[in-house]
Amino acid sequence: MQSTVLVSSFAEIAREKEIDRDTLQVIIEDVFRAMIKKRYGADDPEAFQIVFNPDNGDYQILHVREVVEDYDLEDPVLQIEYTDAVQIDEEYDIEDEVAVQIHIEDFGRRAVQAALQTFRQRIRDIEKENIHREYSELIDEIVVGEIYQTRRREVLVLHNKTELVLPRQEQIQKDRYRKGDMLRAVVLDVDRDAGASPQVIISRTAPVFIERLFELEVPEIYDGIIEIKKIVRLPGERAKMAVLSHDDRVDPVGACVGVKGSRIHAVVRELGGENIDVVPWTDNTIDFIKRSLAPAKPIAVELNHELVPPRARVTVPADEVSMAIGRGGQNIRLASMLTGFELDVYRDIKSDEEDVDIEEFSDAIPPEIIQKLKDIGCDTAKAVLELQPSELARRTDLSEEQAQKITWLMEAEFERDPDATVDGKPLATADEDADVPSDEVASADDADVAPEAASEVEPDADPESPADDSSSEEEPLTDEPTA
């Protein structure tokens, strides 16, 4: 195989991988020097010169040796005897340099095949480095690619001939992915050692994805007039974004929402209907907590910085408790994430004359459990009925059986008054409708903000023991209420 043929093979591979000419030249020289070293045991640049012709892409390998007296040869790689030199050219004399071209065929077929393999490996290494460098610079930036394969645990996306991976945990649950569709996401990470090629991880659930989408839709954010201070998400469900304007003439919330919601709706559509609350940022912690619980309007906030994480007791009007908590606890959970405070929502008893203080049930509920209810903001009967028994059990560390008995006890109290309501709704439907209507603030599971249980259930209150039948009107917690 001639050098031109071998170099042409090298060049074709390089073109496929989009390797530039200068890099190609360096790789070819390195490959040739590896071949030289394997055959001659040395690759001294003075003894072996590689000459590149940029016009035709041809390479020449020259073996340069010094002419010495016959029988004075010390190093056959660096020297040549006079008798051998004059056979090449009669004009050579002692101490002259003799340059002899080494042909690719001189290395043998196996050496040439090894050279091709080495070249391909070098190309792969360079390609790997280029991908890692390119996408490392794109971390937290939006990329748009074409879906070319969907798998159970991931979606593969093609971007500039590079495979990007969208793992299941980085997908919005409501999204549906079809081959050939275009997909927008942010680069989350680049794993250089994932395999033959770096693995580029993209995400649609990262908070920064929302930030980049708003930068595209809101010029004031892109220009730095409005600053996004923090974003928290329950991907596919709801998000809260705190914003601050550096220009008193620009309303940060209005700018993000746009005329008739045009700007924010574009972002919501991209996120598959994920609702976004835009919250004005303030350094005043109490005011910020109040704003974060919108659309509820808290009456008072008491901070406790001694706990880790810090907690806040938030009092809201009786008819806004559900609104503050949100469907499944989404609103209060996101507000806690946004503010950094564990939030306990309490009903304003003064605004609801029908409600009953939880202490009124002390003859039926042990004091330890009453304290647990208070710790999560359930200091009244209606506050307890705001939560489903399963949610009440999870937040208080009680058994579901105990939580169900507490709920029955609260319901029994209001059944004595047929006009009693919870959040303005008849008691018969209040419990099942405790979640916020669709036009109110949507919310998610607030398990992360549920306070830990403060004490254990009294020893004789075994949640696993079967319930006893009793006909008393207000039964002890350990008994099963009658129908």
Short description:
The chain is an alpha/beta fold. 34% of the residues lie in helices and 23% in strands. It has helices at 3-16, 21-40, 82-88, 109-136, 207-217, 219-222, 252-257, 262-270, 285-292, 321-325, 330-339, 367-375, 381-385, 389-396, 400-415, 427-430; strands at 48-53, 58-68, 79-81, 97-102, 142-150, 154-159, 162-167, 182-191, 199-203, 226-234, 238-245, 275-280, 300-304, 311-316, 342-347, 421-422, 425-426, 468-469, 479-480.
Q: Largest sheet, order of strands side by side?
A: 5-6-7-9-8
| Total number of beta strands | 19
Helix content: 25-40%
CATH class label of the domain at 3-131: Alpha Beta
DSSP summary: helix tally? 16
Radius of gyration, whole Å: 38 Å
- Which fold name is given in CATH as the topology of the domain at 3-131? N Utilization Substance Protein A, Chain:P, domain 4
Distance between the termini: 96 Å
Main beta sheet strand tally, sense and closure: 5 strands, mixed, barrel
